[in-house]
Structure formats: structure tokens, C-alpha cells
Amino acid sequence: MSKVFSFFVSALLALFVTVTAQAQTDSIVSASVQATLVNDSTYLVKGNLQLVTGWHIYGNNPDGLNAPAFQFKLETVKPVGAIAFSISSVKQKDVLFAKANVFLKSLDITQSIQIKGFQPDSLKGLLLVNVGKGDQFYALELPISVALANGQKVAGLEVLLPSAATTPPEGACGDAAHDSKKSTGLAVFILGFLGGLIALITPCVFPMIPVTVSFFTKRSKTKKQGIQNGLMYGLSIFLIYLLASVPFHIIGNVQPEIFNSISTNATLNIIFFIVFIFFSISFFGYFEITLPSGIANVADSRSGLGSFGGIFFMAITLAIVSFSCTGPILGTLLVGSLQGGAWALTQGMAGFGLALALPFTLFAIFPQWLQSLPKSGGWLDTVKKILAFLELAMAFKFLSNADLVQHWGLLKREVFLGIWALISIGLALYLWGKLRLPHDVKGAKISLGRKLMGAIAILFAAYLIFGIFPKNQGALKLLSGFPPPTHYSLFSAKDTHHGLQANVTNDYAKALAMAKAQNKPILIDFTGWACVNCRKMEENVWSDPAVSSYIESNFILLSLYVDDRALLPADKRFTYTAKSGQTKDIVSVGDLWATFQAENFNQVTQPLYVVLSPNQALLSNPVGYTPDIPTYLNWLQCSVSKNK
User: Fold this and answer.
1) Global pTM?
2) Assigned CATH for 28-147
């Protein structure tokens, strides 16, 4: 046990050293910047860089290594002329780049800029600097803030509501919204458990069960010791996957809505799209994904220990060598649970680890069960290639997320469904032996099970194709939340607001004015373009005639998209200091409404439904995902009854 403790202490020390090294890079060079007004819209920005002795700053080099440069966040800033340096760079021998142009001491850099339109009181950005010393190299991004003489202080938009809008009235109807977070966590746990069961029947994991159990039974002197070792092995597997979620709790402490920002970030979703295409090609059998052999060798060498530490490292070895099969499944779990936050991810990883650990533990306790296990064979390769088609379908889901939040219009609902239909047809052809992939045997006998699964895949493709046509879009309720929303369509001329036509807006001030004019409460719909449960509510609950007619007749519907990446006008952007003391730049529409939700209602998951009176008083407890129509309708009716 002491060796395991030492291992974790070593890991923590390594993390500390990494953080310390990062902090040291921040002190290599420091910057101070000021701007001098030239005329109404032009400024001369001057930056002073102070360099630690022994280090050098790289200048412009033919290999693409760039000299220091300004990068401003305001898109209306345009550079005028070239950047100038107070000293000239010199060419010298360089360990990393043979010969390089460098600045050997502190220097000033100046750049003229022009700002079109609104000028804020301070201009934020980065000063990009490449520094080196011997074989050390760092590309630094130094944050800067420059006061502008002609700038105007941004009033900002109100983020905090009156206290009455955030305090539930006595005897308020509806369950507290945090219950929805619990149900989300439970759902992710179940999905993680199912993912672990799927991982068990992949070629990387399934053959390890009899091998590992045989190792325990042969190495254990007594049956009792074999059971103890099996239990410790299962516990180790569970802990490894559970501990993998710990860093996300640290990330989550930065900003409460960080997970929503990650899961809906267009760049990250495109990266996920590429990664999952990569995973699917691997699962098809064209190559294997493996972690560096050195990691596996170190873990394997440690697993020879006769203590709990040895068993723990055996579990680490299993996690590493099975990564080519479990990695894509874990990746799906990771990005699928991000909106639920760090605890949802922990619950998902716990479910995955539990499902993976149970068979190893149970077979170690009851080794006679090994006789009933099916033999490894071609069926494992079939399972892996079925997963490849599923990974391919998930890849386009991530691309769709990026497309939705950026409003590119690349994957409209019909295009997305068509791609999924083609993937499903491809799966059917593979299962029927018509489409051959690497390692498939020509003329191999197709089992009845494969034929039946192929038929199911064809039926699913037909279901998707049926739902492509406008009059049948409501028929795809089994897939609610996965395809783009029905109003994001090739056949839709404009946003139909989820099918609801009356008293609908995305503007808070307009909603408040409408509520006062009509004496109707505001139903705030905190939603997201890439929110699966939001689409399920719109397509399965709001589509119900009783619910839709009640909302249109009794509410002003205010839909606020927390993942909308559209930029706010320059005169509406501001820096907000949260109740926790953290500061955040409010730049996009999504930044504003995500902060608005988190600060007022202490919730960062979507959907979240809040009912306010025309005087901005909370009329009921906010609720989250509520798929039961009578329950949701009853909450709406109860909320309206409180509007006196």
C-alpha cells in the first residue's frame, strides 16, 4: 500500500513541477503597454519588453519564427504600417534553429492602429513573444490592456436581476432545478456503464478476462487469496477510471459554465469530428491506435510487484493496452457528459469503470464460470467494425454542433439525416457481407445474427429517409435531440421558434416590455444550439397541442441561447466581475446568457425553464429537463396562477 501511496505522491509532485515551470515562463519576459492618440481613430501603441538576462527574444526568421507582435481582441482594430523595434535583431548561432535573428536585451515595439466605429475605454489583447535560452524555447502570450484616450466606458448589459427574480416564493410549485442535474448524472452513469459493457466485448478487452483470471488463480496460494486479489484488481480498475475525471473538477473551478463552453466550442467540436473519424478508420481495421510503448512497459514492469501496488499497476496496464478499443468509447462519454459538468463526468467514468471491473472480479471469485465464456474469434472483429460505423455517425454529430453554434448552414437537418442514412446502409452492407473491410474473409459464412442486425440497420436507414421530408419531420421522436432542430432545415425560410409563433423573442428587454404590456409572465428558456435535451423538450413536449397552445396563450417566451457564438456589438461588450470575484469578458451572445443564468439561478445546465412576473419576480421553482408532458404542463399552469 505504501508503494501505491508513493506513486500518487510522485504524480502530484510531477504536477506541481509542471505548474511551477509554467509559472516560471511568465517571469522570463514582462510587458507594459500604452497607447498615444494620433487622431480621432488612430493610436500609436508602444510596448516595452523587459527580458531576463541570459534569454533572448526571437525576431523574424525565414523558417516562420516571428518577432514580437500585438494581437487585439477587438475585430475592428486594423494595423497601420509595419511594426517597429527600438533595436535591431542580430544573427547568432542557435541550439534549436541553427542560426536565428534574435534580440539579446529588452526592447520597445511600436505599432500604429486604427479603430473603426466604437472605441472602448480599454483595448485588450495579447503580446506574442517567442523566447529562448540554450535548448529551451517558449511561445508566450502576454495579456495586455491599453487605455484609449477617445474610448468610452461600456455600460454593459445588466447581468444580475433583482433579488425577487432569484428567490422562489413561499410554497412555490415545481421541483428545484438541481434535481434535473441529478437525473442527468444518473443518466450519464448508466450510459457509462453501458459503454463499459460494450468495451468488454471488444478484441482488446475480452481476451484479457481469461488470461488475467488465470494469472490470479495460479499465483494465489489459497482460494481466499485469489478472491482478495480479484477484488483488489476490480477496485483498481474502478479507481483508475474514476481518478481520470479529477482534473475536470479543477478545470470546473475556473468558471461554472466552462463545461458548456467546451462542449459547444466550434473549434473543439471540429477537433472531435476529426478525432472520431480517426477512431472509426482505426476500428475499421486500417491501423491500430496505441499509447507509447514506453508507458505500457513501465506499467507492466511495476505489475510484477506482489502487493496491492503490483495489482494496481496490472490494472493500469490493462487500461493502457486496451486503449485502442476503450479510447473511442471513453471519448464519446467525455464529450457527451461535458454539459453536465465535472460530477456528471465522474459518474459516467464511475459507471464505465464499474462495468469493466465487474467481470474481472466475478470471474476471479468464480473461476469455473470461465468455461461458459464464448471463445475469442471473428465475432470480436465484427463488434469492433460495428462500433466503427457508430463512431462515424458520432463524428458528424460533433460537426453538426459546430455548424449549429456558428450558423454555417453546412449540415441542415436533411443533410445530416441523409449522411446518417448512408452510414446505416453501409453498416447493413457490411453485416450482410456485401461490403468488405480489412481482415474480412471473402466468402465467409454470414450468421443469422448478422443478417438480422443488417435488416435492423436498413430499417433504421428507411426511418431516417422517411423523416427527411418536411411533412414527416415530427416522426423522428426516437432521435429527438441528435439531428439538428426541425427549424434548421433546407425547407425552412426562417427560424420558426420551435414551432411556436406567438409572443416569442430572444431579446430580454423586449420580452420584459411585452410582458408588462400584456400582463403575462415571462417563460425564460435557457437553451443551446447543441443541447440534446433542449431539442427533446421542444420536439416531444412543446409539440404537444396542449403545451404549445398554453405557452402561446399565457406566456411571453424568451429563448436565450447560452452557446451562441455571435459577437455582441462592440459597445455592448464588457468585463463582468462575478459574485465569486472572478472576472469574465462578455464578448458573445452566449457569454452573456450563460453568465446571466449562472449568476442569477446558480445553474449551468440546459434546458432550464424560469418563470418571471412582468415585475421580474420569480413565480415558481425553475425546472430543468422534464420529459413528462402532464408534469411540465402542471408546472406551467401553477406558475401562471402565481402571477397576481
Assistant:
1) 0.68
2) 2.60.40.1250
